[in-house]
Design goal:
There is one protein chain. By secondary structure, this protein is mainly alpha-helical. It folds into 4 domains: 36 residues; 63 residues; 79 residues, no CATH class; 53 residues, no CATH class. The protein has 12 helices and 2 strands. A two-stranded antiparallel sheet has the order 1-2. Helix 3 runs antiparallel to helix 6 and helix 7 packs antiparallel against helix 8. It is flat and about 85 Å long. InterPro entries: Retrotrans_gag_dom. Pfam families: Retrotrans_gag. It comes from Linnemannia exigua. This is Retrotransposon gag domain-containing protein.
Length: 288
């Protein structure tokens, strides 16, 4: 819509016999619609390119580099035959290594390139070192997410480990009470144990007296009082609006809001209130 058409539309609205507030609402709606029509289409988000390799001999750094390349190549839908040439462009500090290595191999596949790269930039004793760290790893008083991140990083370095041993080491390294609760939840595998630990950590660290139970926290009476105080305020406000808009019909009844769970079966169907006598929720009786 061009500017002249938009101007004509606003002129038409201004000539309508409408209350000022309704006219303002209509004009605002038109302005919003026009803004959407004239807003340019968003530019498609471009994935971030991988960070060049730092050239360090480090198991985690080399794994992160390879995984970032694979994720990027998949997102941009790069043909498999081009993965190695593009990866070479991100070698950074490892370019000199590749210049010496490529003389001995021809037509390298991505799997071959990845294995050669990881052998070169992963310390010889990294697997044994990762095993030792994994057995000694403890959450302590830190956040469980930090513990999970470190545990998974170490696990990536170890090519093979029994699934049961993985779960045992993870649960055993958790903070004492959290470890106990995760065991009681009887997780089926490592992924399940990680999920249970994440959820139970939040439950155990809520800002209220903790009985180390996995049950959901009960609603406190003070919270209920606050809710019904707010509802009473809304009812009083609605009652005033009702009285102002219906001066000729002040005795028009309206139904009460039944607050008690025991009254859901229409026990109070015969109870009515007028606009000058709004319902109160103060008599709400809690079930004990």
């Amino acid at each position: 819509m061009n500017n002249s058409n938009a101007s004509a539309l606003f002129t038409t609205v201004s000539q309508l016999h409408l209350p000022d507030d309704e006219r303002a609402t209509l004009q605002a709606a038109i302005e919003s619609s026009l803004a959407q029509l004239t807003t340019p289409a968003p530019v498609p988000h471009k994935p971030l390119k991988p960070t060049p390799f730092n050239g360090k001999v480090d198991a985690i750094s080399s794994l992160n580099f390879i995984e970032s390349l694979e994720e990027y190549f998949v997102i941009v839908e790069l043909p498999a035959m081009k993965w190695v040439p593009y990866a070479i462009g991100y070698l950074g500090g490892a370019r000199s290594w590749w210049r010496g290595t490529k003389r001995t191999i021809q037509n390298t596949s991505w799997i071959d390139f990845k294995n050669i790269f990881l052998r070169q930039f992963t310390p010889a004793d990294s697997i044994n070192a990762a095993r030792r760290r994994l057995h000694a790893l403890k959450q302590g008083s830190g956040p469980v997410l930090d513990y999970i991140t470190t545990f998974n990083d170490l696990l990536r370095i170890i090519p093979e480990m029994d699934a049961g041993q993985r779960m045992y080491l993870f649960i055993n390294g958790l903070e004492r009470e959290l470890s106990k609760q995760v065991r009681l939840a009887r997780p089926t595998d490592l992924d399940d144990a990680i999920l249970q630990a994440t959820v139970l950590y939040d439950v155990l660290n809520q800002n209220e007296p903790t009985n180390h139970s996995t049950s959901l926290p009960k609603t406190e009476p003070m919270e209920i009082d606050a809710i019904f105080t707010a509802l009473n305020a809304i009812l009083r406000n609605n009652s005033n609006r009702f009285r102002n808009n219906n001066n000729n019909n002040n005795n028009r009844p309206f139904k009460t809001i039944t607050a008690s769970p025991n009254n859901y079966n229409n026990n109070n169907n015969n109870q009515h209130f007028t606009s000058t006598n709004p319902p109160r929720l103060d008599s709400f009786e809690r079930e004990r």
